[in-house]
Amino acid sequence: MAKIIIENLSKNFDSLKCLDKVNLEIGDGQLAVIVGPSGCGKSTLLRCISGLERFSEGSIFIDDELINDKEPRHRDVAMVFQYYALYPHMTVFKNLSLCLEHTTKLTKSEIQERVEKITDTLKITTLLERKPNQLSGGECQRVAIGRALIRKPKIFLLDEPLSAIDAKLRKELRIEVKKIQRNFGITTVYVTHDQEEAMALGDKIIVLCDGKIHQIGTPEEVFNHPSDRVVASFIGNPPMNFFELKVENKDDNKYFLENEEITYQISKKYYERYLYKYLRKKLVVGIRPSSIKIIMQNTPFVATKTNSAIISLIENMGNEDFIHLTLNSTKIIVKIKSENLLKIGDSVKFLFEEEDIHLFDIDSEESLKK
Amino acid sequence: MSYKKLIQKNIAKKISINLFIYLITVSLLFPLFWMIMTSFKPRAEWASLPPTWIPNEPTIDNYRFVIFGKVEQYTKTHSSNIIPYLNTVFVAVISTFIAIVVGLFGAYSLTRFKAGLSKLISIIMPRMFPPMAMIIPMMIFFQVIHAIDTYWGLIIVYVGFTLPYSVFMLKGFMDSVPKEFTEAAMLDGLSEWQILYKVWLPLIKNGLMTTALFLLILNWTEYAFALTLSSRGVQTVTLALAKLFSNEAGASYGPQSALGILAAIPTIIFGIFIHKYLAYGFTFGALKK
Q: Which of B68, B100, B121 is a domain's end point?
């Protein structure tokens, strides 16, 4: 049980800034998920916490104790690696008991008991006498999780633990990881590049990109209120649609977001709330694929909120379809419930509500709706 | 090309490859064969023309001669070779053991704590020039420290000259241990010593055996240092062999072959003993990459 506080953590590889002034607090018993594209520094951040990696500046506290210069083995953290890293020459039992034998004064029967308890929880009791090369990927990762948890560490770190496992098993295991984490109540930091996994697991999601933290929040906050364009484009599948639109004022009280291809009327209230500073300026408009509706061309409708487009591709995902629309040079993805009414080449209209629009500054890419 | 022709071509290829392999093997093993046969030949057959391939009257006199130094049939007596033989076993095994243990620690720290090129070069340095160039200064130095004609003196030299090989070979094997294992062990709370002993050692077991065999052969066959630094006190098998060659009674091919066979047997046995490690193949079990 521990909380982690990270202050101004920076890590440079030669001239390359791998982590840039990271500030982070993870509360006792929380499951924090660090998510970001490959090479964004998320694994490095995890390795800094574990002590396997030195950092250039900043401090890390575990339970208010500065651990910058502590050896990994004195930090009381446990880690699960992407490729399991089980000792290949030892049986599962030995893999699990090794650290207890060397770091505690437990007797043989006590160790046996602890091993039995953890293998019960992880459903690997039958594997105890096997060597790692006789196990499947999922079993290996269960053993690796067991090895990490058996000595009841203060902090539990997982570095993309499920990315080497096939899709179906990955979903099962991720539920189990969450359950186990809840049972043990261990402060956990979980690194993944899979935003779906992050959303499913995390109490707290930390979006990291290019070594900088872009947003920290609950899954709901990160999805519905992304703090900037990077977060908005990374979280959500299919990714958010972005258009560069200009704020225009036609007549007196009519306000539009528009470019050569899209015209969208917004209410005066909306304009005054978010956009008055941007009159006749460009900004980035983001809209989630699930927030767009498609209506047939011949449906009579309010013209000001709709635009026409052509269906260029339909991805059938079972109970939902990803519809790719093309509007001259603009490409839009729409996620709708599967109905077999639409065909490639159809000309349709699309529509979205103004509350669903995300607005970002074109230069800073920060959200205007913070 | 028809299927039949393809098969014919494959068979032809296989035969020619195998033929080639057998040819090389035979040419490599022929001297050994000849040596074994000669060692069982009586004196009359040693250099008879035409040569006898298989001894007509096989005898173990040659062996008795090189082991006990005296055989009724031979006018000449020779000192027993038991002591040199045991000397070699002792010196070679001890030196190899020390070089492996020291090399293990050396290689571990070089791999684990990422030593720079300069350190690596300074370690390989003793092997960068012919050992012969070192012999005169070594002799003088050994006289000063009273190490001439002693076991420990010879062991120091052998360890010193095989250690670079030991470190380099072991480092090569250690480099192939994936760093995840080390990191997992570090986080599991193992000390450096435990990481080496519990995790690395079992993983590089094959490499360790290969290195040990290599060092043992080097130490077993060493001649120059034994000759200059310890020829009176600690006779080794190589020296004894050389002595047989310089036998004033003339060519004594039989005893030479016999001693040669005896000298080769331990390394061959050790080689057979560890052959499964020699077929070097790391199986990094769980680590799928």
A: B68
